[in-house]
């Protein structure tokens, strides 16, 4: 399964490198007084625009928003159509490339094409790529809901 691929050692393709650089930049703006774990994300839209996100924590913990969801919700709020996105990069200071949490995987399934690449990285430059669908096998999605 692609999620278990070893970290890629080759160079990230230029377009994805650029997106990852934007995620690294967004990571600096993380609001993380509780975990001190900064995460950045950058979402590419169909027009070539990039929507950055960082994690935003809360003293009550559960209102915390991950970097991935910040980027996605920001792009939707700016008028971009659901499932029109082309790629998302996410980065944290992890040994292996960071992987989105379960909540973000569900939101990715909702708002992105199932074959959209998720470029996962760390601050050492390791990276790997999985599609949205690969990250959440057997997902409950709108397709099932609307059959009811
Ligand atoms: O993919 C991830 C994983 C974690 N976090 C955030 C949530 C919380 O603020 C902190 C620690 O879990 O990192 C993200 O933003 N994205
Ligand atoms: Zn998450």
UniProtKB/TrEMBL annotation:
Alphabetically, which GO biological process terms does the record hold? nucleobase-containing small molecule metabolic process; pyrimidine-containing compound metabolic process
Which GO cellular component terms are attached?
cytosol
Kindly identify the residues recorded as the active site. Answer: 68 (proton donor)
InterPro entries recorded: APOBEC/CMP_deaminase_Zn-bd, CMP_dCMP_dom, Cyt/Deoxycyt_deaminase, Cyt_deam_tetra, Cytidine_deaminase-like
Enzyme type, top EC level: hydrolase
**CDD domains per the record?**
cytidine_deaminase
Q: Where does Zn(2+) bind?
A: 66, 101, 104
**Which Enzyme Commission number(s) are on file for it?**
3.5.4.5
Report residues binding substrate. 55-61
What is the required cofactor set for this protein?
Answer: Zn(2+)
Molecular function per GO: cytidine deaminase activity; identical protein binding; zinc ion binding
Q: Which reaction does it catalyse?
A: 2'-deoxycytidine + H2O + H(+) = 2'-deoxyuridine + NH4(+); cytidine + H2O + H(+) = uridine + NH4(+)
Domain CMP/dCMP-type deaminase span(s) in chain numbering? 14-143
Q: Which UniProt keyword terms apply here? A: Hydrolase, Metal-binding, Zinc
Function, as annotated? This enzyme scavenges exogenous and endogenous cytidine and 2'-deoxycytidine for UMP synthesis.
Q: Which family does it belong to?
A: Belongs to the cytidine and deoxycytidylate deaminase family.
Return the protein name.
Cytidine deaminase
Organism in which the protein naturally occurs: Paenibacillus rhizovicinus
